[in-house]
Specification:
Length: 83
């Protein structure tokens, strides 16, 4: 354990000698940790948590394509339901 504290003191002395390197290292760590947290938050909200609806695994999205492969919302009459 004594060796560990000696290494910590030596590392702090070297960081104090080179303030530009220390600032760049701290900035790099801060950006990396911040980006990682932001990406995980988005993935957690979008992919890992279930949707807040009952039977969320049965939700679908319907699209309609015209001859030019342009998407459009389908009209209710396009479902072919007859009375």
């Amino acid at each position: 354990m004594n060796s560990f504290w000696r290494d910590v003191r030596f590392g702090l002395r070297m960081l104090a000698k080179n303030p530009a390197f220390t600032a760049i290292a701290v900035l790099t760590l801060a950006l990396g940790i911040g980006a990682n947290t932001a990406i995980f938050s988005v993935i957690d909200a979008a992919l890992l948590r279930p949707l807040p609806y009952p039977n969320a695994d049965r939700i679908v999205v319907l699209y309609e394509f015209d001859q030019n492969r342009q998407t459009d919302d389908p009209a209710p009459a396009d479902f072919g339901l007859s009375p």
